[in-house]
Input
Amino acid sequence: MFDAVTEFVSTQQGDSAEFIGKARAIAIGVAQDYEPPRLHVIRIDNWFGPKWTHFAGKFTAGKHAAIGVHIARLHVPPFVPHRVVAERVFAGPDFEEIVPAAPLHIEIPSKLALQRRIEDVDKDAAFVWFSGECAAQKRGAMMVYLPVTFDPTESRLVKLGQSGAFYMGFSNNEISWEPAMLRGISRGEVAHLEERGRTLADSHSFMEGASGPGKPRN
Output
């Protein structure tokens, strides 16, 4: 379980292994807490700020002016394709990788971007974005969009994600990576998600070690 997610959210050149470990654990924690039928995970080339949360695109206001539009109803954040290093889709309950129907982030005029709602892509899925190239920058970012269909009144979900989306900015304080800029989520909730993900990953590693190595992937 979560082998494919663990393999995808792994350290690459320019990454901080500690931050990527947190990103991996939080992505798994999101899948554990919300149990979406699908989990979309997208690696962005470098840091992105909290203004991306609920950002739907830009509205042209004159020849040389554009106004950023933030909408409560979740839209596909308009990351340009060259910023997307890779994206994967994983299907529950074991969250094995599946082939996506189409890329999430595409070249599109701003006017059309404002019409791309997450629910039109996959209303039942959770979406997780995380940043790469964070070692030199000493900061990293994650953003989570929860399934459009989730009900925050259910007791299992009431602790997290009341807004349907949240942002986590991390910084390296020379000792460790810690939450530095949060939107829609508290430090305690971040710790909860990370602990959920790490506990499952550690448990899986123990079971794999006890039973011997698994079958290698092609």
